[in-house]
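Batch 3, record 17
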Amino acid sequence: MIEAYLEHNLVVRCHDPSMIVQRLATKDLERIQYLQIVGAGGALECLNRWERPVPVDFVVQNPEAELPLLYGYSAISAEHPVRVSVSVVPGFSKVVKLALSLDFDVKLEPSQPEPALIEELLDVADLYLHQSTVSQPVEFIHSMFLAFYHREPISLWAVQEEDPSFMRYITDQGTETISRRFAGVKLNYDLTLFIEKFMEGLFNGGSECSGCEFLESCSGYFKWPRKEYRCDGVKAVFQKLQETAEELRADFASFPSPNGAEPS
Amino acid sequence: MKGAPFSLILLPTLRCDADCDYCFEKKAEHHITLGQLSIVAQKVMDHMEYNHIESLSIYWQGGEVMTLPPEWLEEANGIIQAIADRRNRQVAHYLQSNMIAYTGKWNRVLAGMFGSSVGTSMDYPNLHRRLKGGGPKEYERLWTRNVRQARKAGIEVGVIAIPNEQTLEIGAERFYSHFVDELGIADFQINTPFPGGSENDVKMNYPLDTARLSGFLADLADIWIEQGFHKGVRVGPFNKLMDYFIHGSKDLLCIWRDNCVNDFVCIDPLGRVAQCDCWVTSYPEFHFGNVLAEGSLSDLLRNSEARRQLRARPVELIRKQGCLDCKYLTLCHGGCPIRAYTFYGDVFRRDPYCELYMRLFQHMEELAAGSLSAGLSTK
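Prediction for the assembled complex:
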């Protein structure tokens, strides 16, 4: 399947990296933005034989079972920058904590978190915001925090690599869609228009989004797949990030830099 | 090609001219022949080539390396370099010596092979380092004389010190002053003792009392910040922890890496391969194999059950020893396996100095914060 997309920048998804190492020619590696490894299969050692430092994204869908695998990634991290993309399901914060301790970037894949998971999300936000030993980004928290700090909205769809204007997901069956959570969903229009059309639908349906203070950055991201999902918990997370960003702004403001520039 | 080097702790001899109470090695008269060294170097380079590793760091340790003639080291260097050149690989050498056999004859090899630098060990007061059949005073006299001579010859000397009961009695002020002011050592490191190797009365007293040792280290760190930090004096592990808390640079001691199995391997003169010099002579149950007797080093490392156990250790610690809940997990990952094994007979336990490390990390974090807020950072 890779051959059909070689003129694009690629994220190559696999369950066993040794298959990819065997099949991809060195010239093809130049097109690969990162290698995405899903689940526990295969040995990572083979990546040490790749001459190019292709970044690796380890997708964790079952935190309890897959947590121990993170240490295996530390063995390759000197040569391959590692990110851990973790589904926000019970126990995900353990994965976040261990990943950060190993200096891996983290991306949360939240879908529509229920109240118990909101507590865990708030704990992770707290860890990211306040623990002195954390130095890696935890997306989407990191970008939302910076957006609040700079008071400049971002696109959460883009941060989460789900904006079809920039990125597409090819299912195992070869169908082009938006991201893993859209696999199997039929979208009968140009995918580039998805966010616009989805928001239109939300507004027309009287969604809480129309009056939401976080709409500019969020653009209804948490309303997929169930439009009726209540965002109170998500808003509490955003609120915490916004308050902390404002505190930081106030702290910086009380220590003006000599040239008057705002710290970035 | 990869930037991170392959690190090899190489023990060319198990012969030693000292008889220190807390040595963890099983001494013997074995030393590696130049022919065997050539085979080892070839197999190490094969392993590097297979894994696209460009550079090799060799940490020469003993036994005591200086019981070999300096000419032997020069010849060994030539053999290794020739193999590396043929394979288009770089090699850097580092030396750890007790300096008891040091004479001016070593200066040429120290300059040519080791970048005019050597690591050695001494305690204050010295109770446990002694010559064979001699006492600690005589050892210290010889060591002090030789270190001074080496420094006069332009050799940079770094010192590892292990605290003992009397170190804790005399306190951090005198300890610091002895090394820095009296001996002129600007680079030393404190290590914690452990009961590795054969049993004796001294090792029965380990671990040292955590509360007292923590207090000593905190005092020493304070004195270093006050007197040495801004003058370029390096006291390990404090300097590395300050670098971490101030600049985010994570170049920590081997005991605090996320898994030392990823970072180095040790080979002794009989070709036995183990995790490090602490394991290789005294703990055959943790041998990875024998590089002189077996095929490739890569296969040996891949198939070793002992190495698999060590690799699995941090995972077991976060599952069963509560390390995942620790704020300082990123700095420690459960600490040193040889310390756990020699204290508990079980590698799947936390380092027995866990509490000491936590107090030290906390103290250094506070010192770093204080230094930053006072605008005292050196950078």
